[in-house]
Specification:
- Helix content is 69%, strand content 4%.
- It is mainly α and 386 residues long.
- Strands 1-2-3 form a three-stranded antiparallel beta sheet, with no helix packed on it.
- It is globular, with a radius of gyration of 21 Å.
Length: 386
Amino acid sequence: MAVDKVIFYLCATLIAISIIFSLSLPVFTVLFFNYDEFHFFIRQFAVGCIGIFIMWWLSRLNPDKALVWIGFGLLISCGIAMGLMHALPASMVTDSGGARRWIRLPGFSLAPVEFFKVGFVYFLAWSFTRKFSDGKRTLMAELKILLPYIILFGIAIFLIAVMQNDLGQVVVLALTFVTMALFAGASVRLFGIGILGAAFVMTVAIVSSEHRILRIKSWWGTIQNMVLSFLPDSVANVLRVADAPEPYQISHSLNAIKHGEFFGEGLGAGIFKLGFLSEVHTDFVLAGIAEEVGVFGILCITAIFITLLYRIFRISARSENKVYHLFSLGIGLILSFSFLMNSYGITSITPIKGIAVPFLSYGGSSVLAICIGIGMVLMVSKKAKL
């Protein structure tokens, strides 16, 4: 059967968009650090070309033979890399805000967690297929089945949220984990318990970190007046936070989106990227794009994402092999949750999580890991009845 070429072309289009804006958006960073004007463009162009080649090459492989090796290879190698990262010398690890997330290699830095997510999704798909079977089970029996996964996920939480101080990635993995368990055959009761458990872990992670508490306060400060206006004064006075830190990033993000209006200021003509909105080419790339190409441009990008997700979930639904079904579902979920969490964060619907926009945010590890995941889905598409 033929590969789903539409997915390949949609991903290549998103990569092309990211390359264009890697030249437009980081202009302040280029000037501030005295980089060459094509510094980010050249790197994103190279990574984009490599990513497109990876998708094409993986799509030509036989999933019955290659998928398991790639999936477990990513899971084991990147899990070990995350565990050893803190033992590496400072010259080999990039430190950002006290967190070690990138391993320095000749010419580039590698974030193992991005590739670990793809391997983790494959492991869940492979293992859930063997553990869950048709037929009703008691809640206790289901909990016994999931206990090893909970322990493994606890290790992942320690490696990512504690050692790397990256709660956003844990949230994405947690949501993907519980949703895949539901589609694998777990009951709705267990799904509800999983959601509550994930919420509990996230709450503990937030209250145990002063940095995360300040981030929550900053987010609440931007929306509390609107939310509390619908509540009685007695309740509103209790929930109001008077000393919330000024949410500069969110304010500039919202202003950039508003400034772009419907058709934008024009490619390269944005002003909030000029030092007002930091990391505009990474975490706030959608706000930067919105200012330059407007709501219309964001709607076009969203339409591409929706079409891409539809095609991925279609492959999942039409795969007779349950491992292929769950794996394609998991990759689609990671893309969905990442896009939603970033877009909700920059518009102040939810707190900012520092999650990259799939394909669009500048960064080699994110793009390459997603391309590997999509390449594996393209591999699976040859076996699906499309």
